[in-house]
Task: structure prediction
Amino acid sequence: MSGVTDCYQPIEHRLQLTRRCLAVLAEFRNPVIIITKNFLVTRDLDLLRELATYRAVRVNLSINSLSSELARELEPRASLPRQRLAAVETLAKAGVPVGVLVAPVIPALNDHEIPSVLAAAKDAGASWAGTEILRLPLTVAPIFQQWLEAHVPEKREKILRRIRALRGGKLNDPRFGSRMRGEGIFADQIYQMFKVARRKAGIPEDAPKLSTAAFRRPEGPQLALEL
Result:
């Protein structure tokens, strides 16, 4: 869940679409991975704990800065960093596998915070950590450039230069295998910083594997295709 957009948007408070999906997944013990930036994920602790019983859930909290000011400007509809860390702690104490994604990393803006984010994630109880560099596909690029102009105009050109440097001279590189990592010296520096900081914090790289061993097939004739 959340492959394209956060499944705990503010409207989830009212519509509870994600919770209802999780209820179905829990009923059939279907493995699920969640990525979110919102403390609201803790609302569904009962379902997440049930799925965790069958090794059928992983939750990832996306945290790319500890600055409340930057978070408000960059991700205005998401929980503040301290709330996301609180969500990590709540899930970890409840026995729900939870990790942290330091993402998106924006070169020359928040990349220097990688070590502090990982240290805070470890203190909160994160069991693994990953990272991704900012992607600017299609219409996202002009929106991001407008954001830079509005919030950090003094850093705009430096940030864009760094992004182009790790995207082959462009703002986006859609090639499979490169689009999530980037290439070149700045990409290498970011990932090296992450690896060193992750080891120093004592956070494993790999998340626990999910299991389909407890999956329950739905009853009834729906699966009988009679081919």
The mean pLDDT is 94. The chain has nine helices and four strands. Residues 52 and 126 are 15 Å apart (CA to CA).
